[in-house]
Amino acid sequence: MRDSTVIVVIVGAGPSGLLLALLLSKHGIPVEILEASHQLDQQPRAAIYGSPAIPELKRAGIIDEIRRRGMSPTSVCWRRFEDHSRITGMEGDILADVDGEDLRMACLVLDQLDQLMLDEYLSKYNGKISWRHRVVGLGQDQDQAWVDVETPEGKKKVYADYIIGCDGGTSTVRKCLFGQEFPGFTWDRPIVATNVYYDFTKFGFNDSSFILHPEHFFMAARITRDGLYRVTYGESPGLTWEEMKERQPWKFELMLPGHPKPHEYKITSMSPYKMHQRCAPSFRKGRFLLAADAAHLCNPWGGLGITGGFVDIGGLYDCLAGIWDGKADDSILDLYSEKRIEKYETIINPVSQSNFRRVSDSDPDTLLERDPVMQACKKAENDKALQKEMFMSAFEVSLARGISGDAVPLGHRLIRSVVWAYPGELPLNAKYHGDPASAGATLTFKRGAPSGVEEGRRAGSPASISGSPSVGIEDVSAIKGQLDPVYEAKARVLNRAVQDIGMGWYQWQLFIVVGFGWASDNLWPIVTSLIFTPVANEFLPARAPMLTLAQNIGLLAGAMFWGFGCDIFGRKWAFNLTLGLTAFWGMVAASAPSFAAIGVFAALWSFGVGGNLPVDSAIFLEFLPGSHQYLLTILSIDWAIAQVIATLIAWPLLGSMTCQQTDDSCTRRENMGWRYFVIAMGGLTLLMFVARFFFFTIFESPKYLMGKGLDEEAVRIVHEVARRNGKTSSLTAEDLKACEPEGYVQRGSASAAVKRKLEAVNLDHVRALFSTRKLAYNTAALMAVWAFIGLGYPLYNAFLPYIQNTRGVDFGDGSTNITYRNSLIIAVLGVPGALIGGLLVELRGVGRKGALSLSTALTGVFLYCSTTATNSSSLLGWNCAYNFTSNVMYAVLYAFTPELFPTKDRGTGNALTATANRVFGIMAPIIAMFANLETAAPVYTSGALFIAAGVIVLTLPFESRGKASL
Ligand SMILES: Cc1cc2nc3c(=O)[nH]c(=O)nc-3n(C[C@H](O)[C@H](O)[C@H](O)COP(=O)(O)OP(=O)(O)OC[C@H]3O[C@@H](n4cnc5c(N)ncnc54)[C@H](O)[C@@H]3O)c2cc1C
User: Which atom of ligand 1 is nearest to the CA of 17?
Assistant: First the structure.
């Protein structure tokens, strides 16, 4: 059945399809996009959009945002290979103000531009896009056109008045219309495109530089504000991708200024490409039209690809809008095809070819003498007026007002050269003097008689399509590039499949067993804290805080080992082993014969504990639907409950079976309580381990399996989870396979997994978190807050029982029994703290910032107050208040922190704050060792740290309550 509301169907959600969808929707023309993939293309491709594309991006209402998120590069030059000195070039800043318009080039990496356009299309125009809709055939009749589409629900036909092929270089629409006919040629020189951090500015490089050499030619163009460069260079024909990768360090050392060794730069992606110069025989066949890469291809030297594609789109939009408004009949679409082919043949094709020939010229030393473009630039170097004249010659198109009714004249787009940057090559006949609108006919949509294609004709079957030789710029890179975007793409498919299953029985069970990990994470540091005094009494160590230090080192080592390990040997093992090891070493610790031994065992059990949060949260998040993310905050209640249970068991065991503070000596026999206590805690952890291991079948993470190359197994698990939830999933192994370009080889090795993990903390993300002043402050302030709390919390907690004991003695009721009873009362107060934290963050007028600042500062204030206590009851009261507010603080801190980092850099942000927290945690016992424990010094220090953290929170530049994440 035809969806009568859809007038234009666009095949492909690449940059051209999205821009057209945006322009048409803005004009009120109903559009649907069909996209074969399940998401936008993530591969690193275009980044710089030439001046001719700027008016189109402006008409779509996105140019300001593009410039805000990206850059406006202006300078282009050619350089010598030997010393990288500048030969000549152009300064496009003259285009910053052309009759009040900023026509400078714009730079924003393609995936970000696509996302921006998609967001606008969806949010502003309620745009329609169908993912996983692969066009495999087409047809048309008197009244309409249609495409045959493969969807997850099966095959279907989608009808429209006009169907636009924006499906890229390997366009199915083009192949269906013209078979394998795509005249042109493929260059025999392969090129390699890399994104690399290297300080080219040290060598006087600006925005874009072309370095001339017959063999080692390359281009270096800055593509992000934080200094990422696109370096594209020529390679020898006949090399395999493996060989190209091997040669890359040698090529860089040879070519780049400063001749850097690999440790002096950082490559974030790397891709080999074949280059093509090809153009379809026509951009129109009846109700079908082609645009951008689907219609024509050129090599990427000079960035004419989507720049030309955007100009196609602007012209096509004008034509369709003209027909829609009744100002033109559909013969104007023939004009579109004719003029855009002319622009390809006369400008895009020759200019891009000479761009490539220039940079790879066989005699670069004499090029300036032979090359009119370089000569023109040289001449204009010190002559602003001449520069302006050169640039403006490309704008001299004076046509009738655009039929779409927009302010930009139609001819401006239909005819405009796409090579303003290369005025020397602008052909004289680049002007069109006809007025398309004068055709006079007023045919509207659905009334135009299509021509050329018979009803239901299938010019290319799906089989012949897949078997055809590839055309277009082959983005093998993405496949084999260092960041493995195929893994990312597949991970998204899996995420979506899991999201589609939704919350069910499996996740609720997981919620419980993951809670064990959360409980263990707090339980064992509390064990260390609770046994601190009896252990010190029995062994009389010279430096008692060594015990806390051993624990904190174990925690850090565990967090790192399991964090990486769960990507190498699987989540399932890590999930169980962390608890198993903790239980084992905890119980072994009961037999410790010396202080050194208990220190070693504390480090070993903490090694298991350290893995709980990274592994459990990874497992939980991988199965948790977005609608139930709040459960992560609720998990913090397990922390508080663990504290209650630990102190409850500690009370009888430590309270009555350990030496009294007043005892002169303390023998092992009199002090067995702490040993029974660690056995009890080990036993409790063992129970949690058994419950996890024997009573709950945890499925291996589909993402981990897919990373290992076991796609079918990953899909099986998704179906298994769906089955357990009483649901079904439509995910198939083909959906994952669809993310793999031809020839892709899965890297399932452990080193690939580690590389991916390291990627989360790579410098790109770190730089992004510091890219603007506001973001930099946000990141630094959050790290400081976590560091201060990381230092303040253990500093105080580790010595709380000690303080209580010694103070208790001062106050005359220093019985160990009372000490542990008080610890229990304090722990109970933590439970409502965690819950109230969850409520406060949503409270209007308080928000996350208010709740966090207040609870953190109050935690510090109550610590100070506790030093003023003159009897046990008031000390208990202040400690209860402290534990209550610190639990509120933790609940808010855990929920708030991730929201304050931009999504794409969130993993890195979380890692930075967690590291700050753990590293400062290690410093706590070291400080305590040199502080006088007989005084309230550690308490003062930690109180000050909390108050400082509370003040810093107030200065955070963002508040996330009621807003989507950054
Ligand atoms: C390394 C490199 C650097 C470049 N740099 C620049 C630059 O700086 N400036 C510049 O102007 N150009 C540049 N280009 C060229 C530019 O990237 C391309 O011209 C541009 O991506 C083409 O956009 P498109 O929308 O036509 O096609 P694509 O970006 O290829 O998008 C096509 C879309 O159609 C979908 N699709 C495909 N087949 C089907 C089907 N059968 N059914 C449904 N959907 C389908 C695809 O999944 C994809 O989403 C560069 C290219 C490369 C490789």
Answer: 25
How far does the centroid of ligand 1 lie from the alpha carbon of residue 43, in Å? 9
Atom number, ligand 1, closest to the C-alpha of residue 293: 26
Fold classification of 8-187+276-363+442-480 is FAD/NAD(P)-binding domain (3.50.50)
Model pLDDT, residue 861:
93
pLDDT in tens, 774-832: 888 989 999 999 999 988 887 776 666 666 666 655 655 556 677 778 888 888 888 88
Report how far residue 888's alpha carbon sits from residue 856's, in angstroms, rounded to the nearest whole number: 8
Dist CA 764 CA 784 (whole Å): 21
Residue 813 Cα to ligand 1 middle (Å)? 77
Report the pocket of ligand 1 as residue ranges, CB < 6 Å.
Answer: 11-17, 34-37, 41, 45-49, 110, 134-135, 166-168, 172, 193, 273, 292-294, 300, 303-307, 309, 473, 475
The pick from 45, 156, 174, 271 for probing ligand 1's pocket by mutation, whose C-beta has the most ligand atoms within 8 angstroms, reads 45
| Percent helix, strand and coil across the chain, each to the nearest 5 | 55, 10, 30
Give distance in angstroms: CA of 185 to centre of ligand 1.
19
Contact (CB, 8 A) for 272 and 190: yes
> What H or E segment, with its residue span, contains residue 139?
strand 134-140
CATH topology of domain 761-966: Growth Hormone; Chain: A; (1.20.1250)
Distance between CA atoms of residues 553 and 925, nearest Å = 11
E strand or H helix at 791: helix 773-797
The alpha carbon dihedral of 381, 385, 390, 395 has a sign of: positive
